[in-house]
Amino acid sequence: MSVSNFPNIRQVHSTICWAACIEMVARFLHGQGDFENIPRSEMPLQRRILKEYYTIEGTLNANLAMLTSFCAIGDGYPSLRPEKKYYQEILKKVFGIHAKQRFQANIPSFATLRRYTDAGKPIILGMKYPGIQNGNHAVVVTNCRVSEGVKLIRVVDPFANQQRSDICTTGPGKIAYLDYNCLQNRNEQDPSIVSVTTNFLKMAAISRTSLPIEDAGLELSDMQNTGGIEDIRNMVMGFFLDESIFRVRLEDLKVREAVITSHYQTLTAFLNNETAEELKLLKVLAGKKESLEIMISEKPATDKSPAVYEFVGIRESYFTDENVASVKLKFGGRATGKQVNHFEPNYKLLHLQPGDLTFMVFKSGEESCYVSLSDLPSIGVHYKEPYSYEELQTIILKAFPKYIEYEKFASN
């Protein structure tokens, strides 16, 4: 059982995943005609949701310019603070939807999540999330299952790399199946308050029975799904014996042997040359459909033990490599061309957040060249154009001063 016909909507700005999750829940419970009372000037819905956030904060007049320029590449859009029940309040005031929101030390137990999704009830989780660096990330859980002995949760993830400038043309986010145990350990090792919101009901149906939210974050983790990369690849292929996962048949899949290294950093961490989070990606080509990617974390080898790899999840790909066969590079001020090798990768991926900037990174000695996979001409970033580290520094400092200032404030 799962939550059926749940919308899949991309967040407009890199820090308002929460607004996209609210929109998805509102569209799930309401028909399109139910939004006709919202003025066109306040659309898309995420702009109206943001307006309510500023109203709650008492900062609406100070942020009118943010609402006016909402459909342009922006700087300084808010993340949610954990001490207020924003989901509960905004859903009620804007959409007439009752919800229950609470905060706890870790994500709910797998049994609790499964009880909700089996009853057709989605859950918004705000938590530490693989590949997301700037605080907690909000996703909607719509299915829980056990496959090949692995506890999997299906999430609708509103984050999708911003590769175009018409950002208010909201396409879909990404579907992912995440290893529950890995996600629980991530939130235990990097403690923060987890937000759990569910029991969504139209106000007219408020008398209906709702399920209690159990604080079951103390559930003991099972053995982690670790081993060699080949072991993880074979395990994931077993998931597709159930054709409901991504609606793809096992015989239509082709798994690349190549392992792509993907780095994730905040803007400030990049500017300060700090260590990035690293995931290993295995590409899974699914016929003519968009490719998938298996996410794997690595515990590096030591003198006493070999490297250990852990399955994180499998998601719709953030990056379709078939589109990039050759690139222009710049090293030491000199331009050169280079073929892109996706079978024995001669590059790494870099995702900078907030701002949703994505690059292929090529090395020549100690020097790096960053080839953009984003197309954001309004801030000086163009698809497949090469940039030096110094050029990216200049672009980031000019385009995102508010995000950088907020990161400095949050880290103190």
**What do the pLDDT scores average to?**
86
Number of domains: 2
Helix content bin: 10-25%
Q: List low-pLDDT spans.
A: 216-221
Specify the number of helices.
10
Q: What is the overall silhouette?
A: globular
How much of the sequence lies in strands comes to 25-35%
Structural class: alpha+beta
Supply Rg.
21 Å
- Beta-strand segment tally: 17
Largest sheet: 15 strands, mixed
Please give the alpha-carbon distance between the first and last residues: 44 Å
Helix-strand pattern, N to C? HHHHEHEEEEHEEHEHEEEEEEEEEHH
Protein name: Peptidase_C39 like family protein
Description:
The protein has 412 residues and is of the alpha+beta class. The chain folds into two domains: 17-205, no CATH class; 226-402, no CATH class. The protein is 24% helix and 30% strand. The chain has ten helices and 17 strands. It has a 15-stranded mixed β-sheet that branches. A two-stranded antiparallel sheet has the order 12-13. Strand 15 (357-364) and strand 16 (367-372) form a beta hairpin. The longest helix is centred in the first third of the chain and has 13 residues, at 17-29. It is globular and about 60 Å long. The chain starts with 16 loop residues before the first helix and ends with a helix. The relative contact order is 0.13. This is Peptidase_C39 like family protein. It comes from Dyadobacter psychrophilus.
